[in-house]
Design goal:
This protein has 223 residues and is α+β, with helices and mostly antiparallel strands. The chain is 40% helix and 17% strand. A four-stranded mixed β-sheet has the order 1-5-6-3. It has a three-stranded antiparallel β-sheet with strand order 2-4-7. Strand 5 (186-188) and strand 6 (195-197) form a beta hairpin. Helix 1 packs across helix 4 and helix 2 runs antiparallel to helix 3 (43-51). It is globular, with a radius of gyration of 19 Å.
């Protein structure tokens, strides 16, 4: 029997995914999930639909429930998906949510090691990239741990600026560095961010610039 036809197992996975979701929503999610799993079509299509069953999380980090992330996490931990399906589901999760805000660095590294690489979306072709390129990452705030850089970077410095400053409304840091094409884990552009996913340890020659009021004023004058 396929794992997704095991009602007890599916309920266990959904209970974990819905642990922080309002109780009134859980039964509806389970009911709709059952309908999806019993419908015709491939497993990958069904899993993507289930990811979207979970309520849209609010912008406030403290109020997020991370149902989709927890659903993916349980599938990963129980090793229920082959590498290809796991990789495709990860693309859907990464490009529609921001799972790095839920997963610890250790867990995210486990995921990135488990998937096929490199991953691209329908908007990108990794073969069009140079063998070595400069990438950028923006982090908002003044008290930033500059030793803990994340996995999500961009080929576009302007994108990093927006992440660092909130469209020139606050202070932040812009990091830049070099990465080899064969070190790239994923390359996405569905959000027009030219996003490069890479292990921070694979980024070399890292430079850091703090964007203060003077820099914000220069930016305004430039445009």
């Amino acid at each position: 029997m396929c794992w997704y036809k095991d009602r007890e197992l599916v309920n266990e996975i959904l209970d974990y995914a819905c642990e922080k979701i309002e109780r009134t929503d859980i039964q509806e999610i389970k009911k709709r999930c059952s309908c999806i799993l019993e419908s015709k079509g491939g497993l990958m299509t069904k899993l993507v639909k289930i990811l979207h069953l979970f309520p849209q999380d609010p912008a406030c980090l403290e109020k997020r429930k991370y149902g989709a992330e927890r659903f993916f996490e349980k599938l990963l931990d129980k090793e229920l998906l082959n590498k290809n399906t796991l990789s495709s589901l990860f693309v859907s999760l990464w490009t529609t949510k921001r799972p790095f805000q839920y997963f610890s660095s250790e867990k995210l590294e486990q995921i990135l090691c488990a998937i096929d690489k490199p991953i691209v979306d329908a908007f990108t072709d990794i073969n069009n990239l140079e063998p070595q390129m400069t990438i950028y990452r923006g982090i908002r705030g003044e008290n930033v741990d500059k030793t803990r850089l994340g996995y999500s970077w961009s080929l576009d410095e302007e994108v990093a600026w927006k992440f660092a400053t909130g469209d020139s409304k606050c202070h932040g840091y812009i990091f830049s560095g070099n990465v080899q094409r064969d070190k790239i884990i994923a390359y996405f552009n569905g959000r027009n961010e030219q996003e490069i996913v890479v292990f921070p340890t694979d980024v070399g020659c890292i430079k850091c610039e703090f964007i203060n009021d003077n820099e914000l004023e220069k930016k305004e004058q430039r445009y």
